[in-house]
Amino acid sequence: MEDPKHLEIVDHLKHHLVVSSELERVVALFKALGDVTRVRIILALAQTTLSVTELTEVLDLNQSTVSHQLSLLKQQNLVKGTRNGKNIHYELSDRHIMTIVGQVKAHVTEHGE
Description:
Blueprint: H1 4-16, H2 21-32, H3 36-45, E1 50-51, H4 52-59, H5 63-75, E2 79-84, E3 87-92, H6 96-110
Antiparallel strand pairs: 1-3, 2-3
């Protein structure tokens, strides 16, 4: 006979793990992190605020690539830009993103080759 507590948990999960807008936003965030260029941008911005020009230099990429990737990161509220004269300097929207990236890096290191 099944454990009644286990059946209760299964029933609870059935009713609470439905697709929601919040869950879709979580998936969209992971998709945004699913690109090496975007992760490199996040890692750079974790150190300091940078302009597009500075990011192109640091990452050795062209301006259109960096601008496009920044746009995608902004859509997910992972980075934000602040105008400073003629330039916009980008920074992480909050420190949660580095917690996520740090945890994933720790997992990869622990379960590496």
